[in-house]
């Protein structure tokens, strides 16, 4: 397997905001239920509140001082999980989405059903050494050290429209790295999508002006 690292981060592609996707953080108590012109009716605030209540907060995990947002109770509740997938689908139905790029590993949980419902391709962005064919890789910074993501070089077609998805947006570094891979393969990032956004960490600032869609805010 051949891995080719990206020597420089790919520049963000600037252009008009795709119709029907908001670039602004949603209003309301921790919910991303803003109306979006041109898309299906968004899942109601009441239904998203049900899903939000199934996100468990665990202090001091994985290390002291971290408040971890645990999605496993949400995944264990079929009603809540279905609501989340519905909400993601409703934000992108009618858009020209050619592929869903999901980030290893919890992004796979939401990216696969989203791709299936939108009848589009599913592409994994994986940790090093997991993909068997020719790959591109990009390194990015973490609070303590470096990490990297890889994608197959033939995963996307040139000029295709891609939604990058993960379970949670924190500082934005991992999602931005996935976006760099998309651009390096000649595709476009239509939007970034998340189930949860930690607003205080301002991760969307690393992703804008590409639209950022988040369902639940903490």
Helix-strand category: alpha/beta
CATH architecture: 3-Layer(aba) Sandwich
Number of helices, counting only DSSP H or I runs of 4 residues or more: 5
How would you name the oligomeric state of the polypeptide chains in this document? single chain
Share in helix = 10-25%
Question: What is the distance, rounded to the nearest whole angstrom, between the alpha carbons of the first and last residues?
Answer: 40 Å
Return the average pLDDT rounded to an integer. 85
The strands making up the biggest β-sheet line up spatially as 5-4-8-9-10
Order of helices and strands: EHEEHHEHEEEEHEE
Low-confidence spans: pLDDT under 50, at least 5 residues? 7-29, 31-40
**Count of individual beta strands:** 10
User: How would a textbook summarize the main sheet?
Assistant: 5 strands, parallel
Radius of gyration: 17 Å
General form: globular
| Count of structural domains | 1
